[in-house]
Write a structure and sequence with these properties.
By secondary structure, the chain is mainly beta. It contains one helix and 32 strands. The strands form eight sheets. Strands 2-1-32-31 form a four-stranded antiparallel β-sheet, with no helix packed on it. A four-stranded antiparallel β-sheet has the order 3-4-5-6, with no helix packed on it.
Amino acid sequence: MRAIITLLVAIPAMLLSQMVFADGVTLRYDSTGNLLHEMHSGDGWTSLWAADIGANDESCHLTMAGGQLVCFTADSTLDWQLAVPFDAREVTIGDNGKVYITGLGDGDIFRTMGYDADGNQQWNAVWDVVPDNFVDMPTHIRTDTAGNTIVCGHAAEEGLDTRIALVSYDAAGNARWKRIHTEPEVIYHYAGDMVLDEAGNIYLAVMKIKNEVYSVDAIKYGANGDLLWDSSYVPDFSDDRLDVNAIALDADGNLLIGGSDRNLFVVKFSASGAYQWNYAHGEGVQGSAQDIVVDSTGSAILAGQWSDGAISGYLTVMKVEADGSLAWFDQYIGEPDQRLGIAMAIALDDADNAFAVGHSCRLKSPPYDVYRKKCEIDTRKYSPEGDLIWMATYKGADGSSTENGHGVRVSGTGDILVTGQYSLEDDDDDPDDDDTAYQDDDNGDDTAFDDDDNGDDTDDSDDDSGGWMTDDDEDSSSGDDDGNACG
């Protein structure tokens, strides 16, 4: 399950040529699907995706878009907003509302920063996983109950293999240990998701290539960085279309991993790492699981996309029982002119109702191509039995925009918080058209946020000015770099 996440994507040139405005959008619904507030964050087309939302004592929630971390109060008022001084990839919320961000630092290395609940910098750490290599890429960040921060990513050497890198920092930002996960004859390791248990053990959902065989791997590390087990499952379609995107734990410590191999699938491993079962839906030609949660019965609910080949894919939600049998399967096909759709995230409330968020799109004509489409953010609430309770669709103020849903969270008050992208497109490609306008929100504050990208990453270990535009402190702690694991 992805908890707090920032998704930065490569945007095709064809799409950029049409897009003149985009920013992150955050929607707040009540438990019955009424839209309470909408908030916008970011500046210009770089603000393509918002992050999942994290709560600061339920008085503030955070969204990440376009190099800005933005804190809104529950009534949509902007509390604070700060620029992140590096290429952020993921953000998470720890105890007492503390904020931790990881991403790509100067020189293509891991950079992780910790802040208090008001956005004041507490620590900054960098890690050059394999010096002088092609690129290091941090992708996931979590905190454990002891206050440690765990970052997972990858180290890729040009022309060589890709390996998983894992590092643990203490509450002060000192590296406790570092690991690089290696295995003989493996040329590619990619961790699609990471989850921690209450004891601080770390579980990774991994796609692996070994001897030209593609497999789904479940890997467990102890809180002290020891590799505990590594288990593999080879799907029926074991080729370059295999993808692993999501992971969740049930109450008994069993691991459920969601992904795609032309089908939407889920694989279950026991708490000791033994393969239990897998379920792949139908004979699809395109399917993917983007997110997964586990309810109180041990059943897995997956959000993603599935198609039998007639279309590119519909927004799909599927529930699989704890024994591997299908409980229910649902797709949103939409209006007749909507031909694309995907569910990107899913969350549960205390009653095991599921909230799926994604988008459905219709292709613009002419020409019919996937980069000319108009999308809407769809939020769907399901009962534990799979009945659709309500659906909320967000199309922007006047329907002239396009939206993509990305994240969802159920707040402590029972409201549903949804994040995504809002953009306007210049359909006639007239450079003189001024289509840039912020959509009105409830508080009337439509000021664009200033993305202060001054590129100042100068090393200054004495900088204690607070805030987010801080200088680059080197990670003086080498940690226990024994090369045995994921970092």
